[in-house]
Amino acid sequence: MLTKNSIPFAEVCTSKLEFVAFTNRLFSEARKSKLNALNDGTFFRPLLRSEEKALSNICHCRSTDWSKLRLWIPKDMVPQDDYSRWLERNVSFNTFEGLVAINVGCQLNGNLQDATLPPAGIHFNTLISNCIIEKNCRVYRNNVLKDTYIGANASILGNGQLVHSPNASNYGMLKLSVGPESGGGREVFVTLESTMIDICCQLKMNHKEGKEMPTSPIPLSPYNMIGNNCIFRDNPTARDIFLLPTSKIEATNNIESVTLMPGASIGYGASAKNASLQWNTFIHQSHVENVLLMEQAKVGPNSIVQDSILGPDVHVSAGEVHASVLGPNTNAHHQSLLISVLWPLGRGNVGYGANVGSNHTGRLPDQEVVAAEGTFWGLSSVIKFPVNIAAPYSIVAAGTTLVPQHISMPFSLLVEQHQECYILPAWVLQSSPYTISRSEIKFSTRRKAKRHEWYTGWKIIRPSTIDLMMTSRQILEASNGSSEYRNIPGAGKAILSEKSRRVGIAAYSACIQRYALLGLLQYCQENLENITANNILESNRESEYLLPVIDLTEPRWPVLPWEEEPNYLWSHQKAVLFREFPSRKVAELLNKLLELEKDYAQRVQRSKNRDDTRGAQIIPGYRDSHVHADDDEVVKSVTEFSLSVEKNVQNVLLILGRKHSRL
User: Fold this and answer.
1) Shortest CA distance to 175 belongs to which of 55, 291, 47, 279?
2) Is 447:311 a contact under the CB 8 Å cutoff?
3) Number of separate domains in the chain
4) Does residue 609 sit in helix, strand or coil?
5) Domain of residue 22, residue span
6) Which pLDDT score, from 0 to 100, does residue 659 have?
7) Distance between CA atoms of residues 162 and 157, nearest Å
8) Contact between residue 30 and residue 44 where contact means Cβ atoms under 8 Å apart
């Protein structure tokens, strides 16, 4: 059953089927030797003798067999009329071979949408063979144009070869091997309409039974297909292309077996082989092979991407990506290397010179890395496989080397000191909360892939990340009595100092409690008639949501955000409240929220102020060229939210106080 969310993906599957069937039917009908009416009221017919003479003598065209040329007559025109004058104006200096059908519908005198394109017409083509050309097309200066359907208003300009291999089109269907490059591999079958949900399901990352988006087998077709309003220009060699309307391929080096959805484009020195591009994707000055780019993904310049899946809103430039899965909103904007990286939830960044790619053991390149949501790989970090960063929104500091290990304490900083790796649990929460607040805003405003939006807009602070924090805090609390700790569950092979342990406990506690208390405030606002200021929240403990017990040493896939039940959020927050606060008096809890919210807003501003102060001490004119914390949009947003929480708490307490005075 189709849902509102699956409709765009089902529609593109249907449009592929219809496009292929339509093209196959056109070629079949056009081959008939006599006047032939189509179901849509248009006609195919052979040339009249006068039309043949016009093409040969006046238009300077040549053909190996004029009897195989067809005119395609629109339904509002008379099939028997002589279209010699139309041909003289719109067709010149071409060589035709085999079946060629030309639609003689009204040609444009120019192009009002793009001044760089010539007027509609078919001119100066060295060879056009076995092609159907719709109305209002621009087909100029191509060397070899063969086995191709060209949709209405399409522009085919200045190309070398455009040919097709018999039954070679994949129409966006690819079989990829991600993870280990050899010695195994994780095989994934993707289609043009795949989502990250489909990919995670095939990789068995889901914890619940998953359903893939509906797909249908596509009949093979021995033709290139270029949809309406497409642009295909200045490409020296191309083979086996499938362009849905409004997509573009321009000024590439080599193109083979590519499928583009509407708005997708490949251009400017790029080469692509076995590539599927969803809506509004872009590849330029880069090489891609065996890849799926989901909506709004971008590759280039100067990138190599092979055997990989780039999720919605992923940007890769000036680096290499091999045998990897990069989830939504992942960015690798600098020269870096990602090999065999499984990063299903994405939302991270790759710094310049990061080498997440030493997957060769000296025997086989059969190792891999698992990266948690929001991982930041710092400048020149070196990751020795296998590594599992199962710690969401953690930072691998610049120059840090990670040996094989499994790390699962969220929001941590991993830093190398004296050739030893240290972990600072919850460092991001405590010392850089600005990062979290900015990320929440960034993921909301920069999420351009609207067709994937229904499952990519999850919150950073949510039940699964809170569960990880609670388990990590419990481990930190149990590790007591030493100045340094090694082999701590969840810390991998990193060293934990006593100071970092205590800071981590406090930071995790503040975040956990703030999360639960914000839920309480919302509950109070929605259920004021059922509570009083001194009322202990009633609950049947047996029916409450049970907080999970997580083994941080066990390799496991993250809880996928789209698998979390939205209806259990308050149940989870309430369970955390029961765990965190022995006293459950509503007034006391709301006052605690005010304290935590004010502290959080102050820490966000301090983390930005710290950068301002340090920069001003080092860089001349820093204050004049940078946004100060007081004017920063993230800081202002957090401050405004804190003030709104304070106002809402005061309103709730005022109403509860009035209710109490009447008792």
Assistant:
1) 291
2) no
3) 2
4) helix
5) 1-172+222-281
6) 64
7) 11
8) yes
pLDDT at 357 exceeding the cut of 60 = yes
Note the pTM of the prediction, 2 decimals: 0.93
| Tokens describing residue 37 | 């009416």
Of 104, 227, 230, the closest CA to residue 155 belongs to 230
Q: Which of 281, 296, 319 is the last residue of a domain?
A: 281
**At 129, phi and psi to the nearest 5?**
-130, 130
Give residue 279's pLDDT: 97
Helix (H, G, I), strand (E, B) or coil at 232: strand
Q: Is residue 96 part of a domain?
A: yes
Q: In Å, how far are 5, 188, 196, 199, 213 from 210, measured between CA atoms?
A: 15, 15, 12, 10, 10
Query: What separation, in Å, do the N-terminal and C-terminal C-alpha atoms of the chain show?
Result: 54
In percent, the amount of the chain with pLDDT more than 90 equals 74
Query: Does the pLDDT of residue 110 top 50, yes or no?
Result: no
Using DSSP, state whether 390 is helix, strand or coil: coil
The tokens of 428 are what?
A: 């991001």
Q: Before 386, cis peptide (omega within 30)?
A: yes
Radius of gyration of the chain (CA): 31
What average pLDDT does this structure show over 124-144?
97
Q: Is residue 352 part of a domain?
A: no
Kindly tell me the burial class for residue 374, based on how many C-beta atoms sit within 10 Å of its own C-beta (0-12, 13-18, 19 or more): buried
Report, as an integer, the average pLDDT of 257-280: 96
DSSP category for residue 208:
S
Quick check: is 185 in a domain? no
Predicted confidence (pLDDT) at residue 179 exceeds the cutoff of 90: yes
Of 281, 313, 348, the domain-final residue: 281
Query: Is residue 643 pLDDT above 60, yes or no?
Result: yes
Q: Does residue 432 belong to any structural domain of this protein?
A: no
Q: Identify the burial level of 417 via C-beta atoms within 10 angstroms of its C-beta, where 0-12 means exposed, 13-18 middle and 19 or more buried.
A: exposed
Burial label, 619 (beta-carbon count in 10 A; 0-12, 13-18, 19+): exposed
Omega prior to 262 cis, within 30 of 0: no
Residue 644 backbone phi and psi in degrees, to 5? -70, -35
Q: Is the pLDDT of residue 540 over 50?
A: no
At 224 the pLDDT is 95
Question: How much is the pLDDT for 155?
Answer: 97
Is residue 159's pLDDT more than 90?
yes
- Nearest of 149, 384, 341, 157 to residue 249 by alpha carbon: 157
3-state helix, strand, coil in the chain (%, to 5): 30, 25, 40
